[in-house]
Design a protein that fits this description.
This protein is of the alpha+beta class and 130 residues long. The protein contains 3 helices and 7 strands. It has one domain. A hairpin with a 3-residue loop joins β5 and β6.
Amino acid sequence: MAKWLRFATTRIDEDSRKPEGVFTAAYNLLESGELSPEEWQRLRETLIWFSKNLPTPPESFNAGRAIFWFQPNARDCLDRVWDMVELLRQHSYHVTVYKCRGLGRKVVDGEAQAANAGLAAHLSGFDCDP
């Protein structure tokens, strides 16, 4: 059975109380002043791609405690997430990849990703170092 994927840092998000996702980490890194101009541009272009190509929940959706997961067949998204992971790791972020067979109660369900509001069943994590 294919597994959903979540990429998260070891930092704990204050809203969800779960490991901070790579998008939050990427935006924090983008604003940190720690990137070279080339890295900043690469990360900015990646985040712009996601904002154009990854559907977002409606504005009325409260994402506070929701945890987002990628569909295992969302290749374009996953390839770009791995690029972000590489850059985050180069700047001392520890990133873990979580795999989950079932998400439980989905509050958002899309082609590339879904979100659940509770703990995911069958959760296992592994370090993303090759």
